[in-house]
Design goal:
alpha+beta; Fructose-1,6-Bisphosphatase, Chain A, domain 1; D-Maltodextrin-Binding Protein, domain 2; 2 domains; 8-stranded mixed sheet; 23% strand; binds 2,5-anhydro-1,6-di-O-phosphono-D-glucitol; binds manganese (II) ion
């Protein structure tokens, strides 16, 4: 008889691996898991309760906020506030960091960066959406936390994860010792370990990119797309193209099946679209932990130093050999450019 392991049980079992005080990070992860269940309930009944549609407010990136973005943001922040382990939240939905200075949080050691609702353009059409989170340990030792506590390199993350609200709801996370996935069993209201030790295939056959922006892509990216589309039996090309438009869902599929996700710079987004602190870094950490790679085309994503909270970056991440092949294409055009100038 198989024994179900819940997220709570798993976290406690694994907390011996944490380098710092055991209970705090466990409680923080538990708080995020609880908020995820509340958001999931709302996502599931969204069509019924007229929660869909614009909230009528604009976030810092100038994008319209959907009501579920606002709702998810509130739920995660309130769970982190009442949990007492988090001193700063950095959210896509807030211009500035939120400093938590309540009595129960006065010794809190963790910083959480969050994209509460990823894939908002898919809310109205019943397509998978997600939440992305990243956890750092504060570096400053006393008083109010500093912005430098938030703007740490991705390589300093102590944990990261995502929740995918899809045909089933899953929570996938890493604390730097591999990646584990939990599926929500709605009948008992618990995330249960369903995907232990997730690894991404070294080689994949799926590429995920918004090809509508093709004319604006750098030449190296165009060359890589051409490579993916060429006929070659030995390497199983042409590859399959799959693009959902929710980063969480696209990367989750590629993590399981093998593939590469690309969001390069383009005319509309000259620095890339996705946000380094709460989209690129956590996804890069998870994929590296699963055996894949993540780059901005020049550097490893996790080695970039964020200068601003809402900083954007180009990102390419997925199966190791696909990322290497892409880098060949990018380096080739960089070399040719240098020779011309
Ligand atoms: P968000 O909904 O948090 O703003 O993120 C949307 C992001 C990401 O999920 C997705 O991969 C990307 O935007 C899609 O962008 P395009 O529509 O430009 O392809
Ligand atoms: Mn997002
Ligand atoms: Mn979002």
């Amino acid at each position: 008889m198989s024994v179900v392991k819940t997220l709570g049980q798993f976290i406690i079992e694994k907390q011996a691996d944490f380098p710092y005080a055991k209970g705090e990070l466990s409680r923080l992860l538990r708080d995020i898991g609880i908020a995820a269940k509340i958001v999931n309930r709302e996502v599931n009944k969204a069509g019924l309760v007229d929660i869909l549609g614009d909230a009528g407010t604009i976030n810092i990136q100038g994008e319209g906020q959907k009501k579920l973005d606002v709702y998810a943001n509130e739920q995660f922040i309130s769970a982190l506030r009442s949990g007492g382990e988090c001193c700063v939240v950095a959210s896509e939905e807030h211009d500035d960091c939120i400093y938590i200075e309540s009595e129960i949080s006065k010794n809190a050691k963790y910083i959480v960066a969050i994209d509460p609702l990823d894939g908002s353009s898919n809310i109205d059409v019943n397509v998978a959406i997600g939440t992305i989170f990243s956890i750092y340990r504060r570096q400053s030792t006393n008083g109010k936390a500093l912005i430098s506590d938030v703007l740490q390199k991705g390589s300093r993350q102590v944990a990261a994860g995502y929740i995918i609200y899809g045909s089933s709801t899953m929570l996938v996370y890493t604390t730097g010792k591999g990646v584990n996935g939990f599926t929500l069993d709605p009948s008992i209201g618990e995330f249960c370990l369903s995907h232990p030790n997730m690894t991404i295939p070294k080689e994949g056959h799926i590429y995920s990119i918004n090809e509508g922006n093709y004319v604006h892509f750098p030449q190296g990216v165009k060359d890589y797309i051409k490579y993916c589309q060429e006929e070659d039996v030995a390497t199983k090309r042409p590859y399959t193209s799959r693009y959902i438009g929710s980063m969480v869902a696209d990367i989750h599929r590629n993590l399981i099946k093998g593939g590469i996700f690309l969001y390069p710079v383009s005319a509309a987004y000259p620095k890339g679209k996705l946000r380094l602190v709460y989209e690129c870094n956590p996804m890069a950490f998870i994929l590296e932990q699963a055996g894949g790679g993540a780059t901005d085309g020049f550097n490893r994503i996790l080695d970039l130093t964020p200068l601003k909270l809402h900083q954007r970056s180009a990102i390419f991440l997925g199966s190791e050999l696909m990322v290497l092949k892409l880098m060949d294409c990018l380096n080739q055009t960089n070399k040719e450019k240098k020779q011309v100038s």
